[in-house]
UniProtKB/TrEMBL annotation:
Organism, as annotated: Poseidonocella pacifica
Localisation: Cell membrane; Membrane
Full protein name: Probable membrane transporter protein
GO cellular component: plasma membrane
Lineage start: Bacteria, Pseudomonadati, Pseudomonadota, Alphaproteobacteria, Rhodobacterales
InterPro entries linked: TM_pro_TauE-like, TSUP/Inactive_protease-like
Membrane-protein topology: Multi-pass membrane protein
Family indicated by similarity: Belongs to the 4-toluene sulfonate uptake permease (TSUP) (TC 2.A.102) family.
Pfam families membership: TauE
Length: 304
């Protein structure tokens, strides 16, 4: 069953869109990521123009993240104070990111830039997460406790604050910087930034994994909502029909994903997320390097 998307100006299978939304919702509930790192490239693959995919993908992330967050709030695995600190940097980063996106779109280089960003960040983050997760899984398999990382630079900086849910007493500067960087990625790449934020919160801020997922979703909701608003009012690239279909599938999928995530160990969750990240990175890299099946496009310039 085909449905026409007015802003994207393409027709897409209705059930395919619902399925994509559900898949992203499952990832959101399992890993604490918005799922945009997978959703946006998948929208590219089915013919959605990159500018529309980025702006609308950010909108879908809000709903799937809200659904997953409620499940974590019931289990008291959300550090609200840390979430608000992350938001301070996130809002500033999102505003800067939308400005950069507009400049690149005016130059006609947004498609290439977004794809290159995906290949670079997904490749680096996925490889690092995979290696670390395999090591942690091997140690736990031999009955050895996970190594306790030394708390260094984040504790040495000024402006410290106590985060009781995470059991931390650290400077607010590192969380603000993490939020700022993720805000830029959210605006430029149409992602919630969870694939960056989750490992950053674990390996840089040393937050417990069980708290990281819910706190990541808390920050993602507000930053992606702000990003969507900016895109809608400056670029007019948010396709409401596409967003509603993705939202419907995402809300249901998030509840399923949360249940699955609670049944898996932290090391298993991280290694599964790393494999997904590397798979998407490989697909995007191949699309850049291999000769396309169709060398010409009938679409308008910059919207191929």
């Amino acid at each position: 069953m085909q449905i026409y998307l007015p802003i994207a100006e393409v027709s897409v299978n209705l059930f395919l869109l619902l399925g994509l939304g559900g898949l992203i919702g499952v990832l959101s509930g399992m890993f604490g990521v918005g799922g945009g790192f997978l959703l946006t490239p998948l929208l590219f693959f089915i013919g959605i123009p990159p500018a529309v995919a980025v702006a609308t993908g950010a909108n879908q992330i809000v709903a799937s993240s809200v659904s997953g967050l409620f499940a974590h709030l019931r289990r008291k695995t959300v550090d609200i104070r840390m979430g608000w600190i992350l938001l301070i940097g996130g809002f500033a980063g999102a505003a800067l990111g939308v400005y950069l996106f507009n400049v690149l779109r005016a130059l006609g280089q947004v498609d290439l830039f977004v794809t290159l960003c995906y290949v670079l960040f997904l490749g680096v983050i996925g490889a690092l997460m995979f290696v670390e997760s395999v090591r942690a899984l091997r140690r736990s398999g031999r009955g050895k406790p996970a190594r306790q990382r030394k708390r260094g630079w984040a504790q040495a900086l000024p402006m410290k604050m106590r985060f009781r849910t995470s059991g931390l007493y650290i400077s607010v500067i590192p969380p603000i910087l993490v939020g700022f960087f993720v805000g830029i990625l959210s605006a430029v790449m149409g992602v919630g930034g969870g694939f960056i934020m989750v490992p950053a919160m674990i390996y840089l801020l040393h937050m417990p994994t069980k708290v990281v997922v819910g706190t990541s979703l808390f920050q993602i909701i507000f930053v992606t909502a702000f990003t969507t608003f900016l895109h809608a009012t400056t670029n007019y690239t948010v396709d409401v029909v596409l967003a509603v279909l993705l939202l419907f599938g995402g809300i249901i999928g998030a509840q399923v994903g949360t249940g699955i995530g609670l049944r898996l160990r932290a090391e298993q969750l991280r290694i599964l997320l790393a494999v997904l990240v590397l798979a998407v990175c490989t697909k995007l890299a191949l699309d850049l390097l291999l000769t396309p099946s169709e060398l010409y496009s009938l679409g308008p310039p910059g919207e191929s």
